[in-house]
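One chain is below:
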Amino acid sequence: MSSVSNSQQLVVLVSGGGPVGSTFALVLATMMRSHAKIYIYEGRWFVDQDDRTKWQGEGQGRIRRDQVVTLQDHVIHQMPTFIQKGLFSNLNERVWPTSRNIPIREVEDRLLALLEPFVESGQIELVPENLNERTDRLVNGELLFFVFSIKYSKEDMVPNNRIICTDKNIFICDVS
């Protein structure tokens, strides 16, 4: 990360470290290299005693998602090769000839593992908290680019995240 000064880096805040946010961050980190500093905010993460970021589980009073997602081969083939290999190594459950099943929990764990080299290099920072309007990087205007997912609760199907806008930033919304 030393080849580009901090003032020249694109600062990207990603709200949500689930499949969409993590995949986006991986692709952007690969494309932008040292030209971007990416912060991923995820309230379902915690830092363990070995200073490693992990998904909260039963030990933290959370229940991980048990659903299985079916990914079509044509979607998988659009992913960078390292993400394909990371997601599907030792896992090739085919229910249909042109798609594969993978548990959401596995997707989340494997993507988090794929983020690790970018975290070690300093290009990505994992922030184990939810992004909100009081987040320092938003309040201080330290970002140039902001990505967020609108999450819906099962109970009311109303967005849980509020959209935060300023006139000097670029926003991308992924409704999932």
About this structure: The longest helix spans residues 104-121. The chain has a mean pLDDT of 79. The chain is about 25% helix and 25% strand.
